[in-house]
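Example S7 (structure tokens).
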């Protein structure tokens, strides 16, 4: 029901990222899971590549962190997004809600704040559901580089 309240006032169009409450900020996350995928860096060029290898904490069916509040304890290099970080992290996917708003764009049509359903991201094929593997089962990240994330 909270999502419906947020949909009605379209707060993301009226507030900057910095002005949002914690609840509004957290509700922006579309639950795609793309930011939880491991990345590989080309040390010669600095270019980053996404892999289909998910953080051990990502629930591969729900595309949600299984220990969100304590994730830094289990995954020390996990990036906790802030408005400042969103503006400077080059690897955030082009579909990331935080990135889109930071760039002055609107949320995508499949976002749960527009559709009223958290299932809509999966229906639109914009999540990692069914497309990735748990990092505990992978030896070489380089063998898992993908090109389906923009």
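Recovered sequence:
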């Amino acid at each position: 029901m909270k999502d419906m309240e947020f949909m009605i006032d379209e707060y993301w169009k009226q507030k900057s990222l910095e002005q949002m409450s914690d609840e509004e900020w957290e509700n922006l996350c579309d639950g795609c899971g793309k930011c939880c995928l491991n990345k590989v860096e080309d040390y010669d060029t600095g270019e980053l590549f996404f892999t289909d290898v998910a953080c051990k904490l990502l629930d591969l069916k729900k595309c949600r962190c299984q220990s969100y509040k304590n994730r830094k304890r289990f995954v020390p290099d996990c990036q906790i997004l802030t408005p400042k970080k969103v503006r400077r992290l080059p690897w955030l996917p082009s579909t990331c809600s935080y990135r889109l708003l930071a760039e002055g764009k609107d949320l995508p049509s499949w976002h749960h704040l527009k559709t009223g359903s958290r299932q809509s991201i999966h229906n639109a094929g914009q999540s990692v559901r069914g497309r990735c593997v748990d990092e505990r089962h992978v030896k070489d990240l380089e063998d898992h580089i993908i090109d389906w994330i923009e």
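Notes on this example. DSSP finds eight helices and five strands in the chain.
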